[in-house]
Amino acid sequence: MNKQLLLAATGLTLVAALFFFGRTTAEKKPAAPKAMPAAQVPSFNIDGFIAQAKQQLTAGQIVTLDKLENSVKRGDVLHQQIEASKQLADFWKDSAHAFEPYIYYLSKAAKLENSEKNLTFAAQLILDDLRGEQDEAKLNWKATEAIGLFEQAIKLNPDNDDLKIGLGSCYIYGKGRGGNPQETMTGIQQLLAVVRKDSTNMKAQLVLGVGGFVSGQYDKAIDRLTKVIKAEPKNVEAVAFLADSYAAKGDKASAIKWYQALKGLTNNPEHSKEIDQRIKMLQ
User: Fold this and answer.
1) Residue 66 to residue 21: CA distance in whole angstroms
2) What is the pTM of this model?
3) Which of 106, 139, 146, 218 measures 20 to 30 Å from 173, CA to CA?
């Protein structure tokens, strides 16, 4: 990886990053998010990944996989492709325990079937996973897959705000984490469309707050996250990002206040240790 993957806003190891994105490496100086030229965005080749994964399979697994991969015959080809993709997804999940091939085939089946329910399931599964992804190439691939699934589901149900929140989240938790502010803003625009219609949608307000933090708009992040906490005082993610937003802004007293509140909510010795270290850095 040739750059800091996420939250380059403060240059410090942030608590919210640890909780919701995985561990990052601390730097000495703040760095504003910068867009990465398209040519430099690392790519992930799922076909190559699957080919390598096959080399780790047993002889029996290879025989089973070969039958599944060649199960589409003449006739109702679409139905066969859907069923084969589902069976391949199950194989990689249950037998080979390989997540990327699993979601690849699960997504393929959902796209072919064009079912809102299955598209949403696959998209949300990928979105939940990519939040902890620290490999930039995989992150970009997963975000792209989830975006395509959410967009296809929205075509089937244009009035579903949860789908729009999911789509916006893919940019903020996914593509925007690579340091490209344009990607983050794309996600923010999706979410703004939801809160303009319903300002009480705290799920959208939360992700907007995260988007404000990731893009370095700390005042906007604080405003959104404060709204969420007023409605949902025990929302750990909102409290963590609010504390980090205050810290990034330079308001140490407010940051420490919310870090202390976060300790009470998580009640986790490991997390408390991380929070105490963060507080110590601010004092």
Assistant:
1) 36
2) 0.85
3) 106
Give the residue among 142, 138, 178 at the shortest CA–CA distance from 44.
138
DSSP states along 69-83 = HT---SSSHHHHHHH
Q: Is the pLDDT of residue 171 over 60?
A: yes
Round to whole Å and give the CA distance between 263 and 115. Answer: 42
Task: Tell me: pLDDT of 205 over 50.
Answer: yes
Specify whether the CB–CB gap between 115 and 153 falls below 8 A: no
Amino acid at 214: V
Dihedral angle over CA of 140, 143, 149, 150, nearest 10: -140
Angle (CA) 53 56 59, round 5°: 120
**pLDDT tens digits, 45-103:** 999 999 999 999 999 999 999 999 998 876 678 999 999 999 999 999 999 999 999 99
What φ, ψ does residue 117 adopt, rounded to 5°? -60, -50
In sequence order, what are the residues at sequence separation of 6 or more whose Cβ sits closer than 8 angstroms to the Cβ of residue 50? 100, 101, 104
CA–CA distances in Å: residue 256 to residues 69, 215, 221, 253, 261: 55, 22, 17, 5, 9
